[in-house]
Design a protein that fits this description.
Strand order of the largest sheet: 9-8-7-10-11-12-13-14
GO molecular function: ADP-heptose-lipopolysaccharide heptosyltransferase activity
Strand content: 15-25%
Number of domains: 3
Low-confidence stretches: none
Keywords: Glycosyltransferase, Transferase
CATH class of the largest domain: Alpha Beta
GO biological process, one term: lipopolysaccharide core region biosynthetic process
Distance between the termini: 52 Å
Mean pLDDT: 91
Helix content: 40-55%
Number of strands: 14
InterPro entries: Glyco_trans_9, LPS_LOS_Heptosyltrfase
Number of helices: 20
CATH architecture of the largest domain: 3-Layer(aba) Sandwich
CATH topology of the largest domain: Rossmann fold
Pfam family, one: Glyco_transf_9
Radius of gyration: 23 Å
Structural class: alpha/beta
Amino acid sequence: MKKPLLVIQPLRMGDLILSFPLFLWLSRKFPGHPIWVAAQQTFYEQLRPVGPAVQYFSLSHSYEKLRTTPYELVINLSHDSTSAKLAAEVKSEELFGPVCDAHGELHVRGFWQLYRCALVNCNRHNAFHWADLNAMDIIPQDQMQETVWSSPRSLGGTSSRRVGVFLGASEALKRPCLEFWEELCELLYARKIFPVLLGGPAEQAFATELASRLSFPALNLAGKQSLSELVMTGQGLNMLMTPDTGPMHLAAWSGLKVLNLSIGNVNCMETGPYQPGHYVLRPAMSCAGCWTCRRTPSGLCHRKLKPQAVAYLASQLCRDRVPSGQSAALAGLELWKSSRSEQGLYALEPCRSTEARSRALCSQFWQEFWLAFSGRGSAELPEKTFVHLREKYPALSERMLLGFARFGRDMNRILRFGSTAVQKNFWQQGAPVVSPLRSFAQMAMSNDNWSVQSRRDAVRCAEMLVSICQH
């Protein structure tokens, strides 16, 4: 019998669902190898009927069995200490992700797992989706490019239009308030669209309060269904409107059309609905996609998202019409459709045909650069994007070049003196557009205990950037 593959993913429900594509790719790259997944029993017991065919284990209850089994491959997708300890103790041909060494220090194995760690508080220009990052250290690019995902199903022929309204999210800032949902449900009903209230046990009281406020008898299923039952309910819905939450990913996985209301401290490029053909609506704000909201306690983006805009989009999507981002109803908002790039990676296509903004171009540049630096892409792509950036936004491109020059001067000191020459906020020094370089370099050097080779690699990274920008 072939040795199993182990994926350690004991985080939240959404994180486990976003690992489903990895499970499928592993089964194709390693045929005949059992795939073991260490996860939270609360989630995998409900997701087992609707997810890929893998063998689940409770990390706490099966720790000894997981620790003593030899593996072909181990991928730790978690940042908690128990997972890192297990990853350090197992015997495996290959190992990726955070590992806790004998001295209790955390080190990350794998370029893309290290890249993800460098995004903490520094993800403004990240354009990689979590589901892709889960796999990119292991799965070749051509295999990801060849993967075809099914489009969301259509119920266009039905006379009765029903939409799911998922009320909850893991954090309060990521979900609309009660008054928003109340107004939205009334607007939907006025358009002869019947909202079905959905949520977990945590949303049960919230849904009951909402239902009591409505002028019509809405079907309230919040807290009354398992995850597999939620999938079955979705078979009879035209679509699901939802903040960024685990059930959103489950809906997209099961083929239910999703309209993601992306508000609060979430980046839809990282955690939007993964399969192609879904929609993301987000306030057009410079701080959108933040790691932590610093503007107002309630989130300024909440006030920018209007129920009228969401009701308009729902009426279009229920009729299988392609919504136009040009509509006056969507003023002050950004509407995207999930798709795939030429590299087979997650992408969001703007529904409004306008010239790419500076932030979008910068994110594109950084994505293409990291692909080239890691060997998964060509340097020609970031070269072309930087030419476009320089033509459209010359001042910004000049700040980038100045930032690279400052980084080079800082690295001269670090090459000579090591970590003693590094300030704690090294990654924050310079313009935000240069932060991806500084954050990754600091993380990579620290991860390798500031070795001479890690410092030379950081310099090589900067040299490649300068070469691309001056090509």
